[in-house]
Amino acid sequence: MKRIMEYIDSAFEGVPESEVLYKYKQKLVAELTERANELTHSGLDDENVIYDLIVSEHPDLKGEYKELLNEIKAKKRKKTTFILRIIGSVIYAMVTVLIYLGISFVTGAWGRTWVFLVSAVLVYVSYIIFLIVGMLTKRRSMFHPLSRILLAVNVNIYTLIVFLVLFVVFGIKGAWLTFVFGVLAMMTVDGIYAEKAAERFAIFFHIGYIMPAAAMIYIILSSLHIVPWHPGWIMIPASLVIIFAVIMVRIAIHNKHTELEETEDDSEWNEN
User: Fold this and answer.
1) Which pairs from 205-211 meet CB under 8 Å and 24+ separation?
2) What CA–CA distances, in Å, run from 228 to 200, 224, 233?
3) For 241-269, how does the pLDDT look when each residue is reduced to its tens digit (9 = 90+)?
4) Rounded CA gap, 28 and 5, in Å?
5) Percent of the chain whose predicted confidence (pLDDT) is above 90
6) How far is residue 214's CA from residue 227's CA, in Å, rounded to a whole number?
7) Rounded to whole angstroms, how far apart are CA atoms 64 and 54?
8) Whole-model pTM?
9) How far is CA 75 from CA 69, 80, 81, 136, 205, in A?
10) CB atoms within 10 A of CB 198
11) Which of 127, 146, 175, 196 is most buried per CB count within 10 Å?
C-alpha cells in the first residue's frame, strides 16, 4: 500500500494540485489497492512481484491523467456549444419574426413577405441538417448514404427558397427552372461528398451523373434560349465522350499508383 502511494506521488510530481487531481489520486489508490488484493487472493505473496505487475499495468499515470483532463474539457466544450446553439436559435427566431413583421408593416405586402419567414425557417432546418451530416461523417462509412440523402434534402431546401423568391416576390414565370438547377446541384454536391468521404465506388456515381447532368444543362440552356432545342439535344449523347475521358483518366491514375507501389516494393526488397 505504501509503495503504491509512493508510486502515485512520484508519477504526479510537478503536476499542479487541483480538485480533479485529488479525486483522481483517490480513485487510483482505491483501484490499485483493490488490484493488489486480487493478486494476493490469487496466490501471489511476493510484494515485489505484485508491485511490478501493478506498475506494468499502469506505466504512464500522468498520461492517463491527461486523457482524463481532455475528456473533461471535451465534455465542457460540448455542453457550452449546446447552450450557445440554444441561445443562438432563440435569438435567430426572435430577430426573424421582428424583421418579418417590420417588413410586412412597412410595405403592406403581406401576400409576399411570408416568403421571408418561410425561407428563414428553411435556412434553420438546413443548419440542423448540416450539423447532423457533420456528426455522421465523423463516424463509420456506413452512415455516409444517410449523409448523402440529407445533403440532397439540403440542396432541395435552397432550391425551394430561390424558387419562392423568384416566383412569389418577383413574379418570374421561368422560375420553374430553379428546380432543374436544383437537380444539377444535387448531383454535383453528392459527387463531391462521395469523393471527400472516400466512398469506395465514388467513380461510379461520377460516371452515372454525367449524362443526367448533361440533360439538365441542355434543358436550362434551351429554356433560356441560349442554345436551340434542336440540335442542342446533341449535348446529351455527347456526354458519353466525357464519360469515356473520365474512365480513361481514372485508369491512368490507377495504373500510376500501381506502378509506384510496385517500385516501392522492389526498393524495399533490394534494401533487404
Assistant:
1) 206/246, 207/243, 207/246, 207/247, 210/239, 210/242, 210/243, 210/246, 211/236, 211/239, 211/240, 211/243
2) 39, 9, 9
3) 888 887 788 778 767 767 666 665 555 55
4) 9
5) 31
6) 13
7) 15
8) 0.70
9) 10, 9, 10, 19, 38
10) 9
11) 175
pLDDT at residue 252, rounded to an integer: 81
Take residue 226 and report the three cell numbers written for it.
441560349
Contact yes or no for 108/59 (Cβ under 8 A):
no
CB pairs under 8 A, 24+ apart, for 193-199? 193/144, 193/147, 193/148, 193/151, 194/144, 194/148, 197/137, 197/141, 197/144, 197/147, 198/141, 199/141, 199/144
How would you classify residue 171: left for phi > 0, otherwise alpha for psi between -120 and 50, otherwise beta? left
Angle at 131 between CA 129 and CA 135, to 5 degrees: 115
- The string of DSSP letters for 41-87 reads HTT---HHHHHHHHHHHSS-HHHHHHHHHHHHHHHHHHHHHHHHHHH
> Hey, what amino acid is at 167?
F
Cell numbers at 221, concatenated: 440552356
pLDDT digits (tens, 9 = 90+) for 75-108: 999 899 999 999 999 999 999 999 999 999 999 9
**Average confidence (pLDDT) over 16-22:** 84
Written as nine digits, the cell of 233 is 439535344
Residue 206: count of CB within 10 angstroms of its CB: 20
Residue with cell 465506388: 201
Say if residues 172 and 178 touch (Cβ distance below 8 Å). no
